[in-house]
Amino acid sequence: MRELIFYPLIIGAGTGGELCVTRAMKVVGEVKDFRPAALVDVITRALRVSWMWAGLTLMGTAFFSLLAVLSTENVSLVVPVTALSYGAGALGGKFFLGERVSPRRWAGVLLVCIGVALVVVGRR
User: What's the distance, Cα to Cα, between the start and end of the chain in Å?
Assistant: First the structure.
């Protein structure tokens, strides 16, 4: 029963966090200089963007939810189920970030979802 709460939380918060961090980094700009001082500058600028803090909070929530599920469920079930985040990421990329998602990517997402369904059905 717990997993009915935690799986959507892992998928939603994890993907939401990645989308927020992506939006923050689009504000910060491309990292072109990898010298330590330049990286510190990029990190400092990134931490000034509220999307970064939202993303880090969501990703932390997903991580601790994943730990909670892994304490009771088999990793051979948990990891495939969390692969549904690929579908959530494609949807978020399209609608939240305005990205173009090609038909080939949608086909790949569909294959992942079919794979997750097979794993879940095979559990019973």
Answer: 15
List pLDDT tens digits, range 76-116. Answer: 999 999 999 999 999 999 999 999 999 999 999 999 999 99
**Predicted TM-score of the model (pTM):** 0.89
Q: Are 7 and 69 in contact (CB under 8 A)?
A: yes
- Selection from 9, 13, 17, 7 nearest residue 78 by Cα: 7
Q: What are the tens digits of pLDDT across the range 47-65?
A: 999 999 999 999 999 999 9
CB atoms within 10 A of CB 2: 12
CA distance 75 to 67: 11
Rounded Cα distance between 35 and 56, Å, is 24
